[in-house]
Amino acid sequence: MDTLHPPAPYRPDMPRPRVSAALQAALQRPLVTVLAPGGYGKTCALRGFWHDWHGSRAWITAKREAAGFLKALRRAIDALGDDGLLVVDAIDALDPQGADTLATLVDSLPRTARLVLAGRSAGSLPVSLWRSQGRLSALNAHHLALSPDEWRSAGLEGNADTWAGWWGARQATVHPDAAWDDELARWLDLAWLNDLSDAQIATLGRAALLPESRPEWLMALGIGAKPQADAAMLQVATLAGPLCNAGGGVRLAARFRPYLVAAWRAREPEAWRAALDNGSAALLARGEHAPAAMLALDAGDPSLCLSVIEAAGWRMLFDRNRDLLRTLLDATATETEHAPRALLDAAWKVEVSKLPHEADAQVSRLCEHPDAAIAAPARALAASISFQYDGFACAAGHADAALKALHEDLHPSFALAEYVAAGCALALGDLEHAQHALTHMQACADRDRLDWLQFEALHRRAALMLERGDLDTAMRWSIERRKRVRIAGLESAAALDPSVRLEATIHLRRLDTSSARRLLQAGTDAACTYGEYWSFTYGTLQTISSLIEGRSDEAAEGVTWLEGQLAERFLCLKWRAEAMLPRIWLRAREADRERLLEIAVRAEAEPWPECLYRDRRDLLCAAARLLAGEALDTGTLAERVNRLEQGGAADLATLGHRLMALQSGDSAALLRAVRQAAAHNDRLDWLWLAPRALGPLEALLGDTSLAADTLTRNFLRELVQRLLERRRDARPQEDAEASTDAPPPAGLTAKEWQILQLIGEQLTNEQIATRLHVSLATVKTHINHVYSKLGIRTRTEAVHRARTL
């Protein structure tokens, strides 16, 4: 029967038929000793043999107090019958009294019982006496060493002859997620670490200080020059190979690293402390700030964490180790008086969390810091905060002060300040200056491998090309940005958010709503990350998609939500200007002249600073007035367009040219606008301006100069066809509404009667065209028919006749 059991294995034991056969042969004698150094797998081999034994059996581990061991030994002997097997493991732990007790009780074993004594050494047991009496068989390390076949089947690397003693270490390396326990720690102490020299422990400890051992890192930690580092790598791979991650050579498993470092610290506390201090400084000097940060965090030393923040925090803020910086900031949260840490904490709120209001006061104080190394980067942060608040002139001033104080472009905050300066130049309409600043800023970010600043520069370059009206180049820059995000391994909804919105905008300009909606659907996770504020711009683009697709109810809901957001919260000028388009478009579709004019009047009354976004707002207000049937001040409009062209803002200037062409009815100017749109496949403006654009575009199809311009001719034909289809789709509803009015007088059609009634309301021809979603030429044709049928000669007479009828 089973009385006492062997300890459970750390992982399933590997079958050892060769060792089992040697044990079976050795048990021809009543006593067998299995003596070998730690790590040769004595317990593992005996455990399998014990389980396969067919008779009674018992197992005792000698690592217990003397009284307890004696009691267990007596119970085991009493339980053994004929052909019984007793295994006593770890006999090297017995004190002289325990050894004498075991030697005395050996004589009381049943004659057919077998006793196996295992350990590193025999200690005080009378092994020589038993051997001379012919009662003892002995197995040693030679019998236990893994054969080449067993080595290969275990999946171990290297040479079995040199690694044979570390089969026990392999048993200790259980699943990576297994918890650390005292038993494993004792095993490492007794079976391995106690047998290693101080130099070997120091080598393992240095390798365990960081997750991965590299020659240059070991050199920084004081291992010596390159030859010593290479030798140390080989030694770590040889000594601790089974304790490494699977397939990993010199990447120690996370569960063993703290224990190995603790062993080194216990033996050489001064060397351990020197490795931390000197190693972190050396790693920072080499530009290896990520391992320096991991070294400080693993040591749990706030002073080391602060030194890493001070030396490399700004680079980590903008490179792929950004999350590591957040961990450093959290680990030093109580160090509120440390100025470099306070500055980086504020920078995180401004640049990563997008919460500038939480850092505004702190940054203002740091800008007045007596140390220029603190004040100059703080100026760059102040510039970024002002820019996010639409204070472009103020932001430009802060950015210029930061650039002058930093002198050289080696500090990451210099690139940040230049990025803000480029954004200010773009917002203020100086696209040439913005282009120059972005080119230099991206070169600095590429040189210093500041991934996040690279991404920001690429996005702003794409936005700049969009303002220049070059949709294809803007798309290429945005795609390049997404490619770099993916290569850097930083792909996330928040990282891709700017590219998603810009590319969706370009797709909508080309009326490709399916591509735009796919991007917007993928990008909504970014809005969830940053909060409801960031969902506004997605709502704008979704509403424009609904308007393009003719989903009136969905578009009306979207506009209602946008207007609610505009009334309730602060939104940047760029987003407010962009949201005007769907609002104007919806009112134009509804022929709601009063609401169109109300949008224009209210928007123009808002005190916006002079900037590109104000120009966009004012142009959209002019479009709203045009769609409402009012005449535009072409002189003021032409002056604005000329200023935009001089600054390089060709996209807004093009919108101004389109509005002036529709206002003047100049077919040559309209043809130029169409040619420019065809060159970039830019269709959106013509769709929302359809009430005023359809008639002139239809008339333009007959222009003889299009015969040699295939691109423009095909573009114009497809555009007019789409606008006509949209008008036909709207007609059934219009006819249903007209049928509820009074029947037309004899001789007039329903449409002619409707137009005569609108004349009676003293609407202009342009306003009638807007109300009925038809071209101006169509309105004039219907009016001519009405005049002919009713004998009307003047507009005044038409008004009188409409009211009389």
Automatic annotation (TrEMBL):
Write out the coiled-coil annotation as residue ranges: none
Any Pfam family: GerE
The family database entries (Gene3D superfamilies) matched by this protein are listed as: Tetratricopeptide repeat domain, Winged helix-like DNA-binding domain superfamily/Winged helix DNA-binding domain
PROSITE patterns, per database record: HTH_LUXR_2
Q: Which UniProt keywords apply?
A: DNA-binding, Transcription, Transcription regulation
Region described as Disordered: 727-747
Q: Which residues form the HTH luxR-type domain?
A: 741-805
Q: Write down the CDD domains for this protein, in alphabetical order.
A: LuxR_C_like
Q: Which SMART domains match?
A: HTH_LUXR (SM00421)
Q: Reply yes or no: does the keyword ATP-binding apply.
A: no
The protein here is known as HTH luxR-type domain-containing protein
Q: Please tell me the species this chain comes from.
A: Niveibacterium microcysteis
